[in-house]
Design goal:
Strand content: 15-25%
Radius of gyration: 15 Å
Structural class: alpha/beta
Helix content: 25-40%
Number of strands: 4
Order of helices and strands: EHEHHEHEH
Length: about 150
Amino acid sequence: QYYSIDKNRIGVFGCSAGGHLALMAAYAPKRQNHPKSIKAAVAFCPLTDLSELEVAFVVQYLGCVLEEQPETFAKASPITYTKRSVPTLLVHGARDRTVPIRQSIKLARLLSQNSTRVELVQLPEEDHMFSLKNCSERVAALKYLVAFFQETL
């Protein structure tokens, strides 16, 4: 137990692109000899299906356009790996124009169909940056995060 880390109780968290990376770390197939140790994931406003977000920052990140390499967009999308998922909490602002809330709704539906524990918290009045503002919604979202990890790890 180096650094007093319990490798049986690892959760990941991120916002926006960091939420996408947290979900990919939790869901995507692991390389040989690398056991899956992530037990839960929390993502605020995550990108979940990159094929629905063919915008400049996604194209730059992937280095291609959807029409040329749809398989690259699929491989980089958490929705592709819902059969390998872990318990997941999604928090998303309903007024998000950067990453539309339908991204989290779609992932939540797929996880639910796969019998994976999933919670989707929709913040009706918030946009993409709610997690950076000092507001009651941010405090509430962080409380959901803490409670979720306490229950799942």
